[in-house]
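Title: Prediction job returns without error message
Component: structure pipeline
Severity: low
Priority: P3
Assignee: unassigned

Description:
Job completed but the reporter wants confirmation the result is attached to the right record. Sequence as submitted:
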Amino acid sequence: SRRGVVDMSDFDATLYFLDEREIQYLRDAVRLEYQLDQRQNVLSVLLDIFEQQPADEIRTELCDILEMMLVHLLAGSHFRNVAYLLRETAVTAQRAADLSEEHRRRIAGLPERLSAASALSQMLDALDGAPELPPQDELSELFEQLRPAALETALAWLGRVQNARLRTLLEQSVGRLAGANTAELVRLIASADRVVSLEAVRRSGALKTPAAVAPLGRLLAEGDVEQRQAAVAALAEIGSPGALQALERGLGDADRDVRVGTARALAGRGYRAALPRVEAIVKSKQIREADLTEKMAFFEMYGALCGETGVPHLDALLNGKGFLGRREDPEVRACAALALGRIGTPKALDSLRAAGAEKDVVVRNAVNRAMRGGAA
């Protein structure tokens, strides 16, 4: 207006000179403006100023503002904005000219602040207690910004999270962090937090991490029962010569489940270096005092490793007679039959056929099962 004052009636009158297509364009433009994420626009402007203004006092003030905004955005559950901020600060730190070490440390260190134990724990606690989670793509984008320092906290929270969708996202994040930071994962095997230690052991096994063999071996020697069982499983999954050598220690463990797990793992890997030790066990009185599950595990391990040389001893257990014609305990004879089935040579099968008419049900069933396995 020439009077310098906007007259709304003048503005309204102009609409009559717009066709329908132009009116729709204006409506779409207004709607788009309202849909824009102004928080992200503000972050973009601040980062542009940081990049283009080299003055130290300006960049110091911007660092303060960005750090404060990170806290407010997290508190307001604006996770997409947080992810954008963390991602773009890394770009800005690389691109900004004449950046001092102090400013580079502060701007590039924002992801580390989110990955700190206190901040990440508070965020996970809030998410797990929220009645409804943010969209999955927002959370995925946020979790991708976590740094190696977050791995310990994330492992600790895996067992606590109640929300199934959040647990899935956290699992994915842990998998990414563990795969990309094996040194940190291996360090956490020795964590004083038992939950973290167990999760680190399982992840090391799943990733078949050779560097984990030494700490897993120490855990097998010094950990509690659950930790030793987890170490057995992880060493078996890694399966390297060093891992199997460390695993052999479990054959003499005080816990029955650790011994059984070790015997099965070494048998499955065909680790012949353990033959002298397992042979001494199956020929000792110790094995007769074990329960059936343990007897079976050790005899089947022996059968998997000894080959033809073990047939005479196993045949003597299955078919031999002692003083006054007494035979071995039925459980021992049944386990010997299973071991012969694992050997599967003609000589071993001949020994099994010799027991084919056995009257004891336990032994006869074991012989039949071994014959089927040996024939296969």
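Comment from assignee: result matches the submitted record. The longest helix spans residues 56-75.
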